[in-house]
Specification:
Radius of gyration: 18 Å
Number of helices: 10
Distance between the termini: 29 Å
Number of strands: 9
Structural class: alpha/beta
CATH topology of the largest domain: Rossmann fold
Number of domains: 2
Strand content: 15-25%
Shape: globular
Order of helices and strands: EHEHHEEEHHEHEHHEHHE
Largest sheet: 6 strands, parallel
CATH superfamily of the largest domain: P-loop containing nucleotide triphosphate hydrolases
Helix content: 40-55%
Mean pLDDT: 89
Length: 249
């Protein structure tokens, strides 16, 4: 059930590196608050999936822009889940295969194109205009919604994130090893932080939440406590509030 109504942020930016737990935490937080949620990574994953299906090179920005011109992208409610949002391309549901390892390997190349990122800004911002929303990504608080009411940045060590991703892949029956997943996580961090366009970075007014000490339920409880404090100095000016430790006064 949603938390009791009261004054609360209408637009929450939830940023952080790959496998920091944003998707699970964002969904659970949205359920508790009765807000819509959007993992903006699925926009880029959907374009990547469509490009691979069409035999387009992820590095070919002109070809990707042509794909979007032929198959316009829309953000729509996910079937059977009123708080969840997903994407369609040319009216086709792109939920399928979005967690395929081939997409993991190519999505950073797609996401670094400046024209593509610009084209995808409006569908994301339209959601924030139309609904109270928790928006997940890597540049929400810095680029997509720089005026978000509350900016949260989930952080965790590369090892903790690799263990999380390994559990997900083993649960799907994928044969992999921790060393392989850790190497891929570190490589992805380098790509996301080092790209020239909208790199992974922390907004100056974001609350940085280190999640290494907490499970997902603990992280959600921690974020709910931050939402309840909004708009105090910490939640509007930023700072650090590690999960598992008392919130700064």
């Amino acid at each position: 059930m949603p938390e009791a109504e009261g004054r609360r942020p209408r637009r929450i930016a939830l940023d952080g590196p790959a496998a920091a737990g944003k998707t699970t935490v964002g969904r659970l937080l949205a359920q508790r608050l009765g807000m819509r949620w959007l993992d903006t990574g699925i926009l880029y994953r959907a374009v990547t999936a469509a490009a691979l299906e069409a035999g387009l090179a992820p590095e070919d920005e002109a070809a990707l822009m042509g794909l979007l011109a032929r198959r316009p992208l829309r953000v729509v409610p996910r079937s059977g889940s009123p708080l969840d949002l997903t994407v369609t391309l040319g009216g086709a549901d792109m939920d399928r295969a979005l967690r395929d390892p081939a997409i993991d390997a190519n999505v950073s190349a797609v996401a670094r194109h400046s024209a593509l990122r610009t084209a995808l800004l409006e569908p994301q911002r339209a959601v924030a205009r139309e609904h109270p929303v928790i928006m997940l990504g890597r540049d929400i608080g810095t680029v997509v919604l720089p005026d978000a009411d509350l900016k949260l940045y989930l952080d965790a060590s590369a090892e903790a994130r690799a263990r999380r991703r390994l559990r997900e892949r083993l649960a799907r029956g994928e044969a992999t090893a921790f060393a392989q997943v850790l190497a891929a996580t570190v490589a992805r961090d380098g790509k996301d932080s080092g790209r020239a366009v909208a790199p992974l970075s922390i907004a100056p007014t974001a609350v940085v939440v280190d999640t290494d000490r907490c499970d997902m339920a603990g992280v959600v409880a921690h974020l709910l406590a931050l939402v309840a404090r909004w708009p105090d100095a910490l939640t509007t000016r930023g700072g650090r509030a590690a999960c598992g430790l008392p919130l700064p006064r």
